[in-house]
Structure prediction request, 207 residues.
Amino acid sequence: MTATILITGFGPFPGAPFNPTEPLAVELARRRHPAFANVRRVAHVFRTSYEAVDRELPALIAREKPAALVMFGLATRTKHLRIETRARNVLTRVVPDADGQIPETGSIVPAAPITVSLRAPARRLLMGALATGVPAALSHDAGQYLCNYLCWRAAEAARTGAPRLVAFIHVPAVRPARLQARRPALTLDDLTQAGEAIVRTALAAAR
Prediction:
């Protein structure tokens, strides 16, 4: 039986005109590896807006019926991969999304728990990333912006049993190859190598 894994990234947002998770998600959906035999990989790039997440995530899950959902987002101030373990019931009212919208409240779901855990073997994903030589660590704080918001909505969706695995990985900023005056701490190729290891680990865990 063919398994489906949904791999997502985000487009640009205020302060980040280049978001590496956009080409990362696309590349991870087409890379060749024996582990991906009989696996259907679907890439999706969200516009970095609350409205896009609310509209597109439920439709994607309903249409693709993924066994695993692996999401990537950009954390401009980090220098390593962060395997997120939970989403927080908070929203920033300081930074607008790509549509210029700012949430009306500071919480995603009023009166809901402060945090919700992501249904993923975080330590196994971490070990997979580290095996590629790319620095990575577990994280318990997905922030207050769209990445955290997507984490929360994905965790809500997983409560119904599908997808069985929901993982979110924050990646550091890299520059497009054409703009690299000097080698950054991590390259897009580094992110791709680690991302592939994470996707393979997630797939194995979801089966």
Observations:
- The two ends are 10 Å apart (CA to CA).
- The chain has a mean pLDDT of 94.
- Residues 123 and 178 are 35 Å apart (CA to CA).
